[in-house]
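HOLO CASE FILE
Compound: 1PF
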Amino acid sequence: NESMTIRGKQFFILKMIGRGGSSKVYQVLDEKKQLFAVKYIDLEDADAQTVENSKNEIEHLNHLQQYSDQIIKLYDYEITNSYIYVLMECGNLDLNTWLQSRTSVNPLERKLYWKYMLEAVQTIHKHGIVHGDLKPANFVIVNATLKLIDFGIASRIQPDVTSIMKDTQAGTLNYMPPEAIKDTSSQHGKARSKIGPKGDVWSLGCILYCMTYRKSPFQSITNQISKMHAIINPSHKIAFPDISEKDLLDVLKRCLVRNPRERISIVELLEHPYLQLKP
Ligand SMILES: CN1CCC(Oc2ccc(-c3[nH]nc4cccc(OCC5CCCCC5)c34)cc2)CC1
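Model generated. Tokens follow.
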């Protein structure tokens, strides 16, 4: 079946993992039967901003390789005037698919994944990048670890339509921080530049909430306008049903504080008692 050549190496396409805008992600094998993920970006009908964002994301991904194992590995890339190929390590499955397939999450697994997510996001923050749109689909499980697969700079990628995923996570408001909704001074798409690192803490808190209560804090509000109002409304109290892990409950409450200045930071989260790894 189909194959592609990246910088003189041949790769055989196994299946499409996801697609979005002018991007497609494939699972591929090299001639040694080694598994990779390839992101193919068609530049033919892409506007200049998309091209610029894609190159920017690749440069950051390339630069951050050396700082953390929680950033997806980038092996090679090929940029021409009509397409971009990005050769990356292939994970087992994304966190969204994993969450949807689990009826319950093992507490130690949850704690480990939380630590990996914090380390990944701390790495991009240390290099001046705020994702601004974190959700479970941005993380992929690779063996027993979790890795961040994109920095929120380039185009959005959704699961391939043939995949069983019904709710594509792209464009979901369930993880959006209140300040991103309130931020009136932004033009479309630039809102994130005004959103600081604490915005990513809110989104991470929503992901941990999902791993604790099997739904995100505002998931039950299906009307998007009502959902946005609830996210910014201080009178809308987020439910925190009691759980045995009191440290976890404290982390959730400190992440889901609407005022970003009062919200806990990534550094404080990494020092929090919840992460002292006694099971
Ligand atoms: C539904 N089904 C899908 C295949 C499989 O899950 C994944 C396997 C590998 C991966 C991946 N690895 N490296 C990757 C490097 C870049 C992008 C990647 O994904 C993009 C993707 C993320 C989830 C939404 C769709 C786009 C990457 C990711 C999902 C099993 C579940």
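CASE NOTES: The chain is about 35% helix and 20% strand. The two ends are 47 Å apart (CA to CA).
CLOSED: yes
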